[in-house]
Amino acid sequence: MLAAGFVFGLSNAERVSAQVPAAAPAAAPMQAAAKSSQRAYDAQAASSDPATPGLVQPIPFNHAIHATDFKIGCLYCHSDTDKARMAGVPSVEVCMGCHAQFGGDLGGVQALTKLWTDKQPVAWDQIYRLPEYVKFRHNRHVAFGVTCQRCHGPVETMDKVQLTKDTIWWPWLLPSTKPQMGWCIDCHRLNQVSQDCLTCHY
Ligand code: HEC
Ligand code: HEC
Ligand code: HEC
Ligand code: HEC
Ligand code: HEC
Fold first, then answer.
1. Mean pLDDT of 128-143
2. Number of domain units in the chain
3. 6 in ligand 4 pocket by Cβ < 6 Å?
4. Position 55 in a domain
5. Cβ(160) to ligand 3 under 6 A?
6. Sign (positive/negative) of CA torsion 165, 141, 81, 27?
7. What is the pLDDT of residues 67-110, one digit of tens each?
8. Which domain holds residue 75?
9. By CB neighbour count within 10 A (0-12 exposed, 13-18 middle, 19+ buried), where does 148 fall?
């Protein structure tokens, strides 16, 4: 088994199961307030501010408030990550599962509701993208126990998702400009995973 060579402890399956939400987050405390919290306004301002590192998205979506303050699991929104090649970004329907009930005073939620009424998707700009000639499968990594943060950094603290220098582990363990071949191969080598060209190329 690979576990013996696992220098970085990626085989810890508990960390991943901890990310899988058992059920939809409890909506009750979220619905309680008719007006959104000051924190929600601040989070929205931070994610729409061009000065915050990262792209200004069509809707100012803030991971810190959703994933940390309200503890919504990554897989609640990125629900294909453990099943498919692509992690996928949640549909407007997933957002409206909560925001049909609250948040209507927030500009971002109003923009979202307009898209919902018009049956339009959100035109999110993608941040991580590999060239077509590379094979990558989220599910293989997630099933193995590689956490999202090992590749994407501490997204749950971010006002905007951005490629970031590693602050938790080692600088070479996170891609800070784009996901490069050397980054994939380093982790594969350290963990005794295949480094054959055809593992990652067609
Ligand atoms: C499980 C429930 C839930 C889901 C799903 C959800 N949200 Fe939220 N959202 C919240 C809560 C709770 C707040 C904070 C409300 C408060 O503090 O008053 C919030 C705040 C916001 C805000 C203001 C802060 C910010 O992030 O800029 C926006 C905009 C927003 N949500 C957009 C979205 C979008 C877009 C989606 C879908 C991708 C989504 N939400 C999915 C619960 C949810
Ligand atoms: C409430 C829904 C929601 C939750 C919970 C959530 N995300 Fe997201 N995520 C989104 C949306 C919407 C986008 C696209 C907008 C953006 O980039 O912020 C996104 C984008 C991303 C991206 C960038 C995708 C790209 O364009 O390359 C990553 C990486 C990501 N999320 C990781 C995570 C991780 C890790 C967690 C858990 C800590 C998480 N997300 C929790 C809704 C969510
Ligand atoms: C082994 C590294 C790795 C792990 C672990 C990982 N990702 Fe990714 N992620 C990537 C790469 C590389 C891309 C770009 C994929 C592409 O362009 O085909 C990406 C893309 C994404 C995207 C953009 C949409 C897409 O599917 O291309 C989202 C959202 C995302 N990841 C969320 C997550 C979440 C949530 C987790 C944890 C449950 C996670 N990722 C775990 C490396 C990783
Ligand atoms: C943080 C460590 C890590 C990073 C970074 C990483 N991988 Fe992996 N990768 C793994 C592990 C561990 C496995 C083994 C999973 C298994 O055995 O099921 C794996 C398996 C794979 C597989 C399946 C191998 C097979 O034998 O079928 C492919 C394809 C792959 N990775 C591609 C990539 C690409 C492309 C990148 C960079 C964009 C990447 N990986 C980045 C750890 C990583
Ligand atoms: C673990 C996954 C992985 C393995 C193994 C791998 N590659 Fe790559 N390779 C990538 C990724 C990811 C990219 C895209 C990097 C980027 O966008 O900069 C890439 C890019 C490339 C490119 C284009 C480079 C450029 O600058 O345009 C070539 C050529 C290439 N790989 C050849 C190889 C050869 C030859 C092997 C075997 C010796 C190999 N790769 C093994 C992941 C891998």
1. 95
2. 1
3. no
4. yes
5. no
6. negative
7. 999 999 999 999 999 999 999 999 999 999 999 999 999 999 99
8. 22-117
9. buried
